[in-house]
Write the structure tokens for this entry.
Amino acid sequence: MQNLSPITVIKASGIKEPFSEEKIVHSLSKSGLSLDAASQTVDYLKKYLKPDITTSEIYSNISSYLKENAPMENYFNYGLKRAIMDMGPSGFPFELLVSDLLKLNNYKTTVGVVTQGKCVTHEIDIIAQRENNKYIIECKYHNTPGYKTDIQVALYTYARFLDVAYVQKQNNPHDIIFPWLITNTKVTSDVMSYGQCVGLLITTWNQPKGGLEEMIISSGLHPVTLLYNIPKEKIQVMLDRGLVTCARLRNAMQNGQVDDILNQDEKSVILKNAAKICKENE
């Protein structure tokens, strides 16, 4: 397989780089496609390659192909990053998603906690606890492709942690308290260096060990924004009601909580798709 070509790709950040079949195949393999299926997808994509093609155009072409030629779960997994960005502009749906992911990993979580620090009052995105370990979590959500979470966010997150942790420790002296930054994008190298220096835990889209992307795929907690055959205005109503994942939506449907939003045909399609991607552990 040829790895590089003279074709240049314009990334969302505006940076140009040579088109790489290897990168495309790697991305497709993360969605669960076999090597043969990924190679066939790249062959299809080659028909649409042109000088200075954008990553958005590549995504659209591959997505269209997968929608018609791959299992639904592979199509959903490939479109996951874009679907997360479509959950905005508010960051609250992302906080609910992160909270659900942590619950599946045996954390007890509370979202949107207003708590007193040593100096001022803070609203913490998520406070999570597992045994005696407590985590003060900042969820930094972005809905712009190519954006990186910068050092200002890391500094802000750690400063809030210091103020809140002082009081938390006074109230629960046996707890070991950690700061944690979770974002749906990449972070700058300064953020990683700072985190290592001060002990700030950092989870990005693909770090550590697959990051947020792998957590979502393995858990089956896919966002409702992947449901391309449901009108966007209905998706927005679901997000506003906190039905941010297909798993949450499926449970709400079973309890009759979305009868005012979805018709029977839409419910049937959602249940069919949810059965393929939602794990039975939510």
